[in-house]
Design brief:
Blueprint (H helix, E strand, L loop, with lengths): L10 H4 E2 L6 E2 L7 E6 L7 E5 L9 E7 L15 H7 L4 E5 L11 H15 L1 H4 L1 E11 L1 H15 L11 E5 L5 H7 L2 H5 L1 H11 L7 H6 L12 E7 L8 H13 L7 E6 L14 H13 L8
Parallel strand pairs: 5-6, 5-7, 7-8, 8-9, 9-10
Antiparallel strand pairs: 1-2, 3-4, 4-6
Helix pairs in contact: 3-5
Amino acid sequence: MTPPIRKTKFVEEWIDMGPKIPVPRVDWIREKKLDVAYGGDPLQKMDIYYPNEVQKESYPVVILVHGGGFAMCDKRDWHVYPGFHALGRGFALVSVNYRLVPQVSYPAESDDLKRAVLYLRKHAPSLRLQEENFFLYGTSAGGNLVTIVGMEGAQSRGTEEDFHVNAVAALCPLLNFPDWLKTAPWYMKMMPSMRKALVGYLGGNPKKNPQLAKRASADREIPPHPPAFYLQHGDKDPAVPVQQSIKFHEKLKASGHFAEGDLVLDVLKDTPHAGAGPEFLEETNVLPILKFFDRKRLGESEI
């Protein structure tokens, strides 16, 4: 489902509103590199966009990871819309595709994201990206992926394959599969498409093998030097209960590994899952995340 877009001054420039499904436009972005391959599969590609207004030799970069239940959606659909706000504030934007169910199962999708980050880090000078200022931004299933890669990247610091990032924003993220199976509404668990995607992603039926659900969960052990975390979740989310983010925030806080201001839980009142409403696309909710990223930049701030 594509969320409705409220009328703003940006809609005509950023969104093609018809005839059926609103689709983000990118023709207004003057400098971009589309379908940059970071692997050999047709889905292992990303789009790179640069700000129109702020011309620099290099840019901090927001790496945006779409949701879609690990089985659908695309780097150029409505998920990319919040990234346009980042362009207006001096960040470059990278929107990443990754292989999907049923082609692959866990951990292929998070491995694809790691590979994409490594590619960007390796080619940062030629792509005019600031290697020291990488930020992950993911929604729903994408929230799971950016959390996994953010945590594992912290453990890669100083290695030959260093894919660490400064901060992670996880929006309505599916973080714990066992808890989700216990608490998600019955209709979400019983929807054939959801069940098929879940079984495909985990590589088997989690009810018959609980270890499958546990191994793909993102709320794992917290490394000593984790990235800063911004968790944003709607309190009326029927797909991924807000308790997923609340419990994870408590776990992160209890780890003692976060400095003051490096951990944010932002619960949006009367808000459903991303894709069921416009809240996760609106500037009023995107801008606090970008300000959070800006505070974690190395070097001079823009916002």
